[in-house]
Amino acid sequence: MAAEALCFILLVTGVVIATESDRIVGGQPAPIERYPSIVQVNAFSSGIWGEWCAANILTTRYVLSAAHCFDGSGFDPSMRRIRAGTAQKHVGGMVVYVERVYNHPTFGQLALDGDISVVRLQSALIYSPTIQQATIVAQGSQIPDNMPVVYAGWGAIRQGGPTSDVLLDTTVFTINRELCAQRYDESPYPFVVTENMICAGILDVGGRDACNGDSGGPMYYGHILIGTISFGIGCANDTFPGVVAAVASYTDWIVATAI
């Protein structure tokens, strides 16, 4: 298992180059083969399993998600499961239940800092062209401002709207963290942007973003997983960019936990 866990790390000292692709920005359908490491996270409530968040495959027994997706009053790991290998919501693929959750030890100490979780599955995933482990960024790597990054997920297609029945992706751009922090400092909500976060969007324009139900899902830079979707004010807001947990702040902890 240790050898397998080390497979999902790309040891880089700088940054990777993002290449152009045929992805269509603004929330267009995407085949699961494009993102075989993304999985749906379902929650059990009122006698049914419903869409909740998303996650990213680390190994056959571990996925990476947002801590707030695996927390709360009365939470129990048995109330979560994942569905891998399908672009259709609640249809097809492979369903595996959650065994144990490791929320980052700093989660809950400062707003949503440390909003990242390593989740152990009850049984192993079976790799295929539609189920593959993610490649995650090295500890301490920095992504420059104004670089194209991709969100993917099954979340709401607009603020307050329905979630998507199929996997969607959209391209946004990284935003200077100090500028992003200043914007959030001026908001009426108690959000704090820290050095362990990445902000992205179309600043002062809006129109592209992750939304409710996408939490825990990926932010990709090229083919590298650099963030897990965490929070924002509204969806596709022109003033307040979306914010993700920066994986590079937690890579060493992720590797130590998912073995």
UniProtKB/TrEMBL annotation:
Alphabetized Gene3D superfamilies for the sequence: Trypsin-like serine proteases
GO biological process: proteolysis
Signal peptide: 1-18
SUPFAM superfamilies, A to Z: Trypsin-like serine proteases
GO terms assigned for molecular function: serine-type endopeptidase activity
A Pfam family this chain is assigned to: Trypsin
Keyword vocabulary terms for this entry: Disulfide bond, Hydrolase, Protease, Serine protease, Signal
Domain (Peptidase S1): residue spans on this chain: 24-259
Domain of life: Eukaryota
Family, as annotated: Belongs to the peptidase S1 family.
Entry protein name: Trypsin, alkaline A
Species the sequence originates in: Papilio xuthus
